[in-house]
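Q: Can I borrow your eye for a moment on a structure tokenisation matter? Would you mind producing a protein record, from residues through to fold? Write it directly below this note and I will take it from there.
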Amino acid sequence: MTAPTPDGPPRPLIGITSYQDEAAWAVWHQRAALVPQTYVDAVSAAGGTPVLLPPQPGGAGRLLDVLDGLVLAGGPDVDPARYGAAADPHTGPPHPARDDWELALLHGALERDLPLLGVCRGMQLLNVALGGTLRQHLPERSHRIVPARFVRHRVDVRPGTRAAAVLGPAAEVSCYHHQAVDRLGTGLHATAHSADGTVEALELPGRRFALGVQWHPETDPDDPRLFHALVTAGHKESAR
């Protein structure tokens, strides 16, 4: 389904998973459903209509039936129990409601061949959903140096992949993470790496668009290629 526009073609509806956390605004400090505005801006600038998807007990299938694409946003660590591991001391507390909700959306999107883009946690969740595992803590000063500040570095992209078609052979990206993909999930291909060998992109061949990146493309408005690719795939979905 697409959103009507007064002066142009319909815009694909792109769902963005979101947090459920404590937040403050004006005189209020209470629990809220939220997502960084950079995701909303990135989807909108790429020609999509953003739809926020906060964690909730059900309804994933009905939502997916009207969406044209899905962004699995960054966020807290995936519960290690989801991939059969004990928690490392560096791993954050579990968020079962968000894990449940996003896994339901993810599996439903794959069943429908709905275009999807996983960002940071979203890429890790894609790997876990397909039976892969995660490294729970990377060496300090590698991919996250200062709290709330992104690390810029180069990633090399494997030729002949969807990631290469979008990004070319290499890209400068913004990272902020302390975990990474370990064993690949079933069917997934690692399609980009950083200099230290960390998996920086995953994709599921044979799908219209099923791509995950370890970095945060939503923070780089000068490089909208990934979001344009997702929204373009969403246009094709809405035309079906």
